[in-house]
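Duplicate of #3305? Posting structure anyway:
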């Protein structure tokens, strides 16, 4: 764990342990929002995150349920004073991730059908 990013480190640890993701990206965007009025006087410098999770744990679950799973994992970090203020989530199954990667390649012209 880094002493500079304790909240991000906890987010990563909780998601890794509970969801066993095949892909996990955490973007700490807090610095982009530090000047907002709502952030004035906030002790924490880690308040805004984008989290992209790919996990088998999301199979057969709708997006709202997947998001609730992550919110439940991070309840303490969200509820504490100065905690997570904004959490943007992208939750996918490995199959959904592969489908999206294929679409991205096709859009870039990297995939040719014969």
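Output from current build:
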């Amino acid at each position: 764990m880094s002493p500079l990013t304790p909240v991000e480190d906890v987010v990563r640890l909780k998601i890794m342990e509970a969801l066993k993701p095949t892909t996990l990206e955490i973007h700490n965007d807090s610095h982009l929002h530090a000047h907002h009025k709502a952030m004035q006087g906030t002790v924490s410098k880690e308040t805004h995150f984008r989290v992209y999770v790919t996990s088998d744990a999301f199979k057969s679950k709708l997006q709202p349920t997947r998001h609730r799973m992550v919110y439940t994992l991070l309840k303490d970090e969200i509820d504490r004073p100065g905690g997570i203020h904004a959490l943007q989530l992208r939750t996918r199954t490995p199959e959904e991730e592969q489908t999206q990667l294929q679409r991205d390649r096709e859009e870039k012209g990297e995939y040719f059908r014969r």
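Confirmed duplicate; merging threads. The chain has four helices and three strands. The helical segments are 6-19, 63-73, 75-79, 94-107.
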